[in-house]
C-alpha cells in the first residue's frame, strides 16, 4: 500500500470510519469509553449474515502495527478481528484476519454454510477499499 503504517493505523483506529470500507457495516457509533483507546465500545448496524446490531470492543492498539477488536451480536457469533500493519519499502503491507466463535449449534451451521465461503473474498474487498480510501484521500 502506498502509505505509511502511521497513516494506515490512524485511519483504521478511527472505528467510526469502518462503515467506509467494510461491506457489512452500515452504521457504527461509540457507545462507551474513549475513541482511539483500548476498551472503547461501539454499536454497529450490520447486514451479514442478516440485518443485525453488533457490539465491538477495542482489545488492542499497538501503534502503528496492530489493531484488534472483538465483536458480537450476543446471539450467533463472537468474532475476533485483527489488522497487522508492516512497513514495506516506502509503503506498508496490511493484513486482516478473523476468528469466528459460534455461540450455539445454529451458529455453526451459519458459519460453515454462509460465512466461511465468503469471508476471504469480503476481507480482500475490504482491504482494497481501505487502500483506495487511504491512497486517494
Walk me through the structure.
The protein has 137 residues and is α+β, with helices and mostly antiparallel strands. It has a single domain (5-135), classed as 2-Layer Sandwich (Alpha-D-Glucose-1,6-Bisphosphate, Chain A, domain 4), CATH 3.30.530. The protein is built from 3 helices and 6 strands. It has helices at residues 5-13, 18-21, 105-135; strands at residues 25-32, 41-46, 52-62, 66-72, 77-88, 91-102. A 6-stranded antiparallel sheet has the order 1-2-3-4-5-6. Strand 2 and strand 3 form a beta hairpin.
Write the layout of secondary structure elements.
Elements lengths: L4 H9 L4 H4 L3 E8 L8 E6 L5 E11 L3 E7 L4 E12 L2 E12 L2 H31 L2
Antiparallel strand pairs: 1-2, 2-3, 3-4, 4-5, 5-6
Report the count of strand segments. 6
Report the average pLDDT across residues.
93
Helix proportion of residues, in percent? Answer: 25-40%
Question: Regarding CATH, which class?
Answer: Alpha Beta
Which sequence of SSEs, written as H and E, runs from N to C? HHEEEEEEH
- The CATH homologous superfamily name equals START domain
Nearest-angstrom radius of gyration? 15 Å
Please name the CATH architecture: 2-Layer Sandwich
Strand content: 35-45%
Strand order in the largest sheet: 1-2-3-4-5-6
N-to-C terminal Cα separation, in Å? 13 Å
Molecular shape: globular
Largest sheet: 6 strands, antiparallel
- Would you identify the regions where 5 or more consecutive residues have pLDDT less than 50? none
Which structural class is indicated by helix and strand composition? alpha+beta
CATH fold assignment: Alpha-D-Glucose-1,6-Bisphosphate, Chain A, domain 4
How many domains comprise the coordinates? Answer: 1
Number of helices: 3
